[in-house]
Design a protein that fits this description.
0% strand, 210 residues, Four Helix Bundle (Hemerythrin (Met), subunit A), elongated, mainly alpha
Length: 210
């Protein structure tokens, strides 16, 4: 399990000339780090008299954030697992007509599976961004900078994962499936990036004094 590696082991593995982990796994881990910062803000907010009126809401956010963190960490390994069939498909023989047909069929199936994992990373990252948006108004102002850091990491996860969707859809021969995934990917990008930028700018405006 890649998520069981230490930080040093994971980054060394990422830097090595090995197929996994790659950009998809790095995207998921980045998102997990981002939402973990959101959870930290929740934990620093809960129990403070100043935020007693929103404590129940923050507890709900914390529960959701914990779930998203687990999902993103699981997607680190899911991305590696999804890449294995694609890697095998690339090395299949394609000398004869039958071999080419079989390789094309298996490649198409593998590309779809490989695209769905980063798409799931994107959806989870957008949910994480939305939680940061809510925390902006309910979390402790003492560590508001961590909301900004967290949302930017989630944004990075979103944008990075989108590239892993596109790199797979670009190779698909079934353009109906490819176009459908591209359309949904673009919609998630627009929604998530806009929200993340708004949160980041609000954090900036509160911590930067003229």
């Amino acid at each position: 399990m890649l998520v069981d590696y230490s930080c040093i082991e994971f980054t060394d593995k990422l830097a090595a000339k090995t197929p996994v982990p790659g950009g998809g796994g790095a995207s998921a881990l980045t998102g997990a780090l981002g939402i973990a910062l959101g959870s930290m803000v929740c934990n620093y907010t809960i129990g403070k008299k100043k935020y007693k009126n929103v404590e129940d809401d923050v507890k709900v956010i914390l529960k959701k954030a914990s779930k998203l963190q687990s999902e993103l960490l699981s997607l680190v390994d899911m991305d590696a697992t999804a890449f294995e069939p694609l890697s095998r498909a690339y090395s299949m023989p394609n000398t004869t007509g039958d071999e080419k047909k079989l390789k094309d069929k298996i490649m198409e199936e593998a590309l779809k599976e490989a695209a769905l994992v980063p798409f799931k990373i994107m959806k989870t990252a957008v949910e994480a961004i939305s939680l940061h948006e809510e925390l902006l108004n309910k979390g402790s102002k003492i560590i508001i900078s961590d909301i900004g850091v967290g949302v930017i990491l989630c944004k990075a996860s979103l944008e990075a994962a989108s590239l892993n969707v596109y790199v797979n859809t670009n190779l698909m021969k079934d353009k109906n499936v490819a176009n459908m995934l591209n359309k949904k990917t673009a919609e998630l990008l627009e929604l998530g990036v806009k929200k993340a930028n708004e949160v980041y700018k609000k954090v900036q405006s509160e911590i930067i004094t003229s």
